[in-house]
Write a structure and sequence with these properties.
- By secondary structure, the chain is mostly helical.
- It has one domain.
- Helices cover 61% and strands 0% of the residues.
Length: 82
């Protein structure tokens, strides 16, 4: 979402100040900027995807669940003493 807003903001600024588009010398730009700039637009398929998440096994989920159950039981017991 933010990337789209930034791209729209850049388009608006270039529309208001078209002389800024060509106000720099390509030879003065850092190579990493030129490579990223010439990489092309982000495709819709990539833009809509969330970053990959590691899959958690059922056993790992159960272990976490058991630990959290013990944690909250201890918290409730400590609060009951007060």
């Amino acid at each position: 979402m933010q990337l789209r807003e930034l791209v729209q903001e850049v388009k608006n600024l270039i529309g208001l100040f078209p002389h800024l588009r060509d106000s720099f010398d390509r030879d003065e730009l850092p190579l990493s900027f030129i490579i990223r700039r010439d990489a092309g637009p982000v495709t819709r398929a990539r833009a809509g995807q969330r970053p990959r998440q590691r899959k958690m096994s059922t056993a790992a989920r159960k272990a976490i669940s058991d630990r959290m159950r013990q944690y909250w039981a201890a918290r409730r017991k400590a609060i009951a003493k007060v």
